[in-house]
Amino acid sequence: MPSPRKIIHVDMDAFYASVEQRDDPRLRGKPVVVAWRGARSVVCAASYEARPFGVRSAMPALRAERLCPQAIFVAPDFTRYKAVSRQIHAIFARHTDLIEPLSLDEAYLDVTDAKSGLPSATATAEAIRATIFEETELTASAGIAPNKFLAKIASDWNKPNGQFVIRPSQVEAFLTPLDVGKIPGVGKVMQQRLAKLGIRTVGDLRTHPRAALEQRFGRWGGRLYELARGIDERAVSNERELQQISSEDTFAEDLSLEALEADIRRLAGKTWAAYERKSDEERPRVARTIVLKLKTADFRTLTRSLTPQQPPQSERELADIACALRGRVELPDTTRYRLVGVGLSGFVDADSHLVQNDLFGDAP
Amino acid sequence: MQFGIQREVLLKPLQQVVGVVERRQTLPVLANLLVQAQDGKVAFTGTDLEVEMVANIAVEGASDGEVTIPARKLFDIVRALPDGVHIDLALNGERVALKAGRSRFTLATLPASEFPTIDDIELVERVSLPEAVLKDLMDRTAFAMANQDVRYYLNGMLLDLNEDTLRCVATDGHRLALAETALSSGVGSRRQIIIPRKGVMELIGLFEAGDGEVELEFGRNHLRVRRGEVTFTSKLIDGRFPDYEAVIPIGADKEVHLQRDALRAALQRAAILSNEKYRGVKLEVSPNKLRIIAHNPEQEEAVEELEAETGVDDLAVGFNVGYLMDALGALAGDKVQVNLRDAQSSCLLQSSEDDRIRHVIMPLRL
């Protein structure tokens, strides 16, 4: 049996808010909310001083303002956040080459064969956090475990400015009493569906056979079965493959599906422009899949995608397909939408520039 | 509900009915077969809400009743039982007991009331033609149907009927296949219906190359075909099929005649070195000669030369080699006629001897 892997999940504490507090002494010790001004903007980050009021990231900014009127609202400045993120990445790179950034403030590291030569993953995580504080004056939390799933849960355990280890022998005991809501990907809706089956903890989940979970939840059911047993084989992958290029927009007022056309075409233009910029790079990649994303007025998110035989060749084609994908939305006509996005994904190497002609002029 | 039946009597109709059941369903009951026993006959129904297949089989010692049983499991059990065995099926409460020889199975059920069936269709027209002919038309065109295209009306086969002909047409927007036959009694006025892809595949599986007649019954939104003990019903695709006649090239005056098998074999070899994704090959025509050239991203090259009957000089057109081979495979006869115009225009392939089967392919811009 191969020796278990050692994975660290590093998560910066209230990252954007902490950067703002570091750079502006007047904000220190005060509730800070990083968000744009606007009726529909959402909270990007909230300082720990704002959290006792119930302010959380991703909640509508207006709600945050109601919960914590004394909070200081700061507009996000991604240029600075990106600079700090690069600094942190450089610190990771001293310990391992297997780094998988999840966002500006989060990354998985595989330190099974760490190049820093520290005696344990725990010591490595401590060293990384200490260096981050030294070089950026920011605190980070870390989770250390045999896989990504457990490491991610563990990093939240002693947050902020702490770390937590789950050793292979402790996995089962750790997971059994854990609330299923702690499993990444199990949100409120999923939690309710599980609760209907009497599943509240990961231990409860483990009593259900794989087939039963798969029948009820499809492929995700099989994944839940594995996660309940602490199984997660996903590798830490530093290949920053182009996953998706997309543009989305939240409207000032909710719109009907019909009325989205102009916005879809505008966003398709933005996405196409970004795609063309990427295409100029050394290794040209071709996107094969067109994705239309919608969020309803009551915050349900849906996506519809299409992979035509020939990758889209023009902005017009992208826009036409994205518009046509509305036809695959089965919600009632009265549904209103607050957000629409147009994306390209399914990237493959552009090893050819052949174009298949169409028989009919009306190809979408 | 209760009945007994020989394994061999049940197996084939069951296979046809189970074929309709999707492996992944939106409703649990769609994984089941509806089993209805009445007056010494049992009807087995499978559906995916679009295509429905019913098998009516005479049984022994039946008591009436209805229930739904897991389709795949029932079929797997019947198939795995030994030849010639007698099978007894009985509904006990919410379970069905299946006994055969020394084997016993207990299967879970769902109530028959939950099973969606297609009601009697409102019949608007009937057409009858030899079963082997219809199977042949479908066999030679089905490969060109689109699959999950947003142009939903392409994800199926057009049956274009008039007073004396039936045409089957399929296209994915890049190539088109057309096959036609004369009808002894057609329809009064032209009628175009689109059968969904799945229905087409099921029909092809259902038809046999014997010399029987098959009757197509058209409803406003359905097609029904009765064949022996099996009744097939499919919803029709509600959409307008593109004007396919307009894309059959008439100006493609550059004619080339080739041996069909030799051309197919040459394309097959050249395809080995074509680009894996676009599968492009270049056809170069010069007097009495056709050259096929393929390149891949590794800059490897294949060149095939064939004798051809043609006076055409200096024409080069690129095609997806898969489309060419599909079309050649669906043609009959020893010789094939290819009509080309220029590098941007579609080409027409048909047998040199008859034009009842025609294939149109759009070029690749190389």
From TrEMBL, chain A:
<feature type="active site">
    <location>
        <position position="106"/>
    </location>
</feature>
<feature type="site" description="Substrate discrimination">
    <location>
        <position position="16"/>
    </location>
</feature>
<comment type="similarity">
    <text>Belongs to the DNA polymerase type-Y family.</text>
</comment>
<dbReference type="InterPro" id="IPR050116">
    <property type="entry name" value="DNA_polymerase-Y"/>
</dbReference>
<dbReference type="GO" id="GO:0009432">
    <property type="term" value="P:SOS response"/>
</dbReference>
<dbReference type="InterPro" id="IPR036775">
    <property type="entry name" value="DNA_pol_Y-fam_lit_finger_sf"/>
</dbReference>
<feature type="binding site">
    <location>
        <position position="11"/>
    </location>
    <ligand>
        <name>Mg(2+)</name>
    </ligand>
</feature>
<dbReference type="GO" id="GO:0003887">
    <property type="term" value="F:DNA-directed DNA polymerase activity"/>
</dbReference>
<dbReference type="Pfam" id="PF00817">
    <property type="entry name" value="IMS"/>
</dbReference>
<feature type="domain" description="UmuC">
    <location>
        <begin position="7"/>
        <end position="187"/>
    </location>
</feature>
<dbReference type="GO" id="GO:0003684">
    <property type="term" value="F:damaged DNA binding"/>
</dbReference>
<comment type="function">
    <text>Poorly processive, error-prone DNA polymerase involved in untargeted mutagenesis. Copies undamaged DNA at stalled replication forks, which arise in vivo from mismatched or misaligned primer ends. These misaligned primers can be extended by PolIV. Exhibits no 3'-5' exonuclease (proofreading) activity. May be involved in translesional synthesis, in conjunction with the beta clamp from PolIII.</text>
</comment>
<keyword id="KW-0515">Mutator protein</keyword>
<keyword id="KW-0235">DNA replication</keyword>
<dbReference type="InterPro" id="IPR043128">
    <property type="entry name" value="Rev_trsase/Diguanyl_cyclase"/>
</dbReference>
<dbReference type="InterPro" id="IPR053848">
    <property type="entry name" value="IMS_HHH_1"/>
</dbReference>
<protein>
    <recommendedName>
        <fullName>DNA polymerase IV</fullName>
        <ecNumber>2.7.7.7</ecNumber>
    </recommendedName>
</protein>
<dbReference type="GO" id="GO:0000287">
    <property type="term" value="F:magnesium ion binding"/>
</dbReference>
<dbReference type="InterPro" id="IPR043502">
    <property type="entry name" value="DNA/RNA_pol_sf"/>
</dbReference>
<dbReference type="GO" id="GO:0042276">
    <property type="term" value="P:error-prone translesion synthesis"/>
</dbReference>
<dbReference type="GO" id="GO:0006261">
    <property type="term" value="P:DNA-templated DNA replication"/>
</dbReference>
<dbReference type="Pfam" id="PF11799">
    <property type="entry name" value="IMS_C"/>
</dbReference>
UniProtKB/TrEMBL annotation, chain B:
<dbReference type="InterPro" id="IPR022637">
    <property type="entry name" value="DNA_polIII_beta_cen"/>
</dbReference>
<dbReference type="GO" id="GO:0005737">
    <property type="term" value="C:cytoplasm"/>
</dbReference>
<comment type="function">
    <text>Confers DNA tethering and processivity to DNA polymerases and other proteins. Acts as a clamp, forming a ring around DNA (a reaction catalyzed by the clamp-loading complex) which diffuses in an ATP-independent manner freely and bidirectionally along dsDNA. Initially characterized for its ability to contact the catalytic subunit of DNA polymerase III (Pol III), a complex, multichain enzyme responsible for most of the replicative synthesis in bacteria; Pol III exhibits 3'-5' exonuclease proofreading activity.</text>
</comment>
<keyword id="KW-0963">Cytoplasm</keyword>
<keyword id="KW-0235">DNA replication</keyword>
<dbReference type="InterPro" id="IPR046938">
    <property type="entry name" value="DNA_clamp_sf"/>
</dbReference>
<dbReference type="InterPro" id="IPR001001">
    <property type="entry name" value="DNA_polIII_beta"/>
</dbReference>
<dbReference type="GO" id="GO:0003677">
    <property type="term" value="F:DNA binding"/>
</dbReference>
<dbReference type="InterPro" id="IPR022635">
    <property type="entry name" value="DNA_polIII_beta_C"/>
</dbReference>
<dbReference type="Pfam" id="PF02768">
    <property type="entry name" value="DNA_pol3_beta_3"/>
</dbReference>
<comment type="similarity">
    <text>Belongs to the beta sliding clamp family.</text>
</comment>
<comment type="subunit">
    <text>Forms a ring-shaped head-to-tail homodimer around DNA.</text>
</comment>
<keyword id="KW-0808">Transferase</keyword>
<dbReference type="Pfam" id="PF00712">
    <property type="entry name" value="DNA_pol3_beta"/>
</dbReference>
<keyword id="KW-0238">DNA-binding</keyword>
<dbReference type="GO" id="GO:0006271">
    <property type="term" value="P:DNA strand elongation involved in DNA replication"/>
</dbReference>
<dbReference type="GO" id="GO:0003887">
    <property type="term" value="F:DNA-directed DNA polymerase activity"/>
</dbReference>
<dbReference type="GO" id="GO:0009360">
    <property type="term" value="C:DNA polymerase III complex"/>
</dbReference>
<dbReference type="GO" id="GO:0042802">
    <property type="term" value="F:identical protein binding"/>
</dbReference>
<dbReference type="GO" id="GO:0008408">
    <property type="term" value="F:3'-5' exonuclease activity"/>
</dbReference>
<dbReference type="InterPro" id="IPR022634">
    <property type="entry name" value="DNA_polIII_beta_N"/>
</dbReference>
<feature type="domain" description="DNA polymerase III beta sliding clamp central">
    <location>
        <begin position="129"/>
        <end position="243"/>
    </location>
</feature>
